[in-house]
Protein 1
Amino acid sequence: METRSTAAFDPPTINPYPLFLNPIFSFLLPLSQMAVETPLLDPPPPATRRQQCGLILSSLLIFSVGLLTFSGHRSQQSPPISPGADHHRTPPARGVREGVSAKSSPGFVGEEEEERVSYNWTNAMFTWQRTAYHFQPQRNWMNGCAGPLYHKGWYHIFYQYNPDSAVWGNITWGHAVSRDLIHWLLLPLALVPDRWYDVNGVWTGSATRHPDGNIYMLYTGSTGNLTQVQNLAHPADPSDPLLLNWVKNPANPVLLPPPGIGPKDFRDPTTAWLGPDGLWRVAIGSRMEKLGITLVYKTRDFLSYELLDHYLHSVPGTGMWECVDFFPVAVNGTKGLDTSAAGEGIKHVLKASLDDTKLDHFAVGTYDPVEDLWTPDDPKNDVGIGLKYDYGRYYASKTFYDQEKQRRILWGWINETDTEFDDLKKGWASLQTIPRTVVLDGRTGADLLQWPVEEIESLRLRSYCFEDVLVGPGSVVPLHIGSATQLDIMAEFEVELISGKKTDEENSCDGGAAERSSLGPFGILALADASLSELTSVFFRPVQTSADAVTTYFCTDQTRFSKFTFDPL
Ligand code: DQQ
């Protein structure tokens, strides 16, 4: 009858701009009864965890359970506080004076531009919202990464960038390198829209490392009449670890939209993979009306291509597939695989970024490298109708194989919630997620496990560990860490069910932190002030979908994060 949790709090102070103010971190209690032990979040390998406990400390939270009410058992640490009790209280701890915006108050973002509320933001007012952990350029617009790769000791990210403004347009490839995927060095622009075949934008593309040492960078160019074509670029000097200079192939464009495909529906070539016939395959996302599709081309030299007479895969009703990604995962084991790996003991993941919904959907399936067909293992969880990488703001992701550490790294783009008007005032828009290592979930073989790259731990300067914390139902336990500007939190929960009955309707994060399910929710109240009038909940919602199945949602609830009104202060 217990939920256990381990949490480590680690506040590095590397950022001159505080991301978290008043960081009182607390655990939200499970709000109701529990019965079956449920692994909620895949833990890091035991060795890592032990290491972290020694280094960072950790904490164990034991949630008492029973038939609970908000005012039920009292915590041993603090009086119970109902997470939902003052849901409608709105005295904000921060307001427009500190740069709180539509980003933190989604209710202020209307469907139509004229419905939106804005404020006279300045760049300086928003500096506290910038992050030190995540990749983002110093200023202006960015959307999604292209061609990530590891080369001669450096990780390279190329990103969709507008060098002139904080809104989308004039898309150019920004370029940055890192030794550890965390600390980035901004380099000169890699590709700019200066040819007829990309004059309207150098859009997303992917890198392929040839066994002969060459790097082939395929990217989408948007032409003067907005036709999407595929182009090839190469490093001017492949021996340069920083790959500072890029040249566009004189044969460009190497691919035009094929017959039957709309000129604006042909973009974002994948990293190529090598087939059993010695030819490379490149996938490109498209659509036929509302049918989302993946075209596949075969090529020997990346200059001439043959379009297959069938799709790699298609799903009705999903619309345009952007930023298609296709990669192998090992059925057993924790290592990543090179993109060309196929055969026994290997599954393949197909991902599409759905243009219609701006969500990244993937599915696990089986790839036949001879027929060049991919089939989802579970048709109910097909691409675009089933699993997502992330249930928050997350789009245009891309993976790459890190041959140095034999892992597959996933990177996504966190798109803006501010209005364009506000973005222009503040001078920047959006950022990249922390890169994540992805492997197949060995327990089910049907899902992916994602974990922030281990290098994130290099940011930890101090650490706190809370162990054996017994939390009463319906209450909040403060974990005192003093003040900090950035925190990395590791929390481990163990849930033990009391009954094995289906008790919940399938739901998701939509109800927020205050809505109960039979097994929760429970999690962390971050960015909380002392009165809990201001907080951001990051929480787990396990939902018992049948007697022996639990689906766990990992959610955030920002409805009590810096609400502001026109006269907030
Ligand atoms: N954005 C790029 C496209 C891609 C989309 C253009 C994803 O290549 O399809 O900036 O957000």
Protein 2
Amino acid sequence: MIKIAPSILAADFACLRERINQVESAGADIIHCDVMDGHFVPNLTFGPLVIKAARQSTALPVEAHLMIEAPQQYISAFREAGADRIIVHVETCPHLHRVVHQVRETGAGVGVALNPATSLTTVEEILPDINLLLIMTVNPGFGGQSFINTTLKKIHRARQIIAALGKDIWIEVDGGIDNDTASRVVEAGAQILVAGSSIFGKPDPGQACVELRRRALSGKMV
Ligand code: DX5
Ligand code: ZN
């Protein structure tokens, strides 16, 4: 199954609820929220208050993608704000096992994200404990960047490793996903597609969401 996760980073925050409702009506599966701290990544976005607003605007699952240093200090705040899944970066967690279990104890789903230059070997030991592996297909920090082609092989390798484990772990991709790259990441093994500019950057986000899914599914058939 392919899931589409619109990223609100590209949405008009003056009418966030309306924008979220548009993609929900169009069949989006997850609302993706990009939390940035200006340290781990060179951009600042929002914290738990916006997660809470998203949570109150939709019946869809809300996921918090934490691009922040010391994420362990904020796990309970994001969970209390209503995040159904919390994704932390391996690069920010020297004690990843501890943080993963901290997230699990809150009852939220747990995801681990990898930057493009970070090897899959860094998550090998933690895979059995997580629900989702987020493979960044751009360097995190900004919407609207170009897809990095070399990540396709990584997605494929991740799919093989997860298949060998025999566990249900979602492979999510994030960054530069549009009508052209969607089928390629799905072909490589991605199951959840995060998309900001190619959905909320379009005049009709609902229609863009439907079209992105259609293009993604064409990758599944080849
Ligand atoms: C990138 C963020 C993404 C971002 C994607 O640092 O993690 O979720 O919103 O934006 P697009 O789809 O525009 O590349
Ligand atoms: Zn993201």
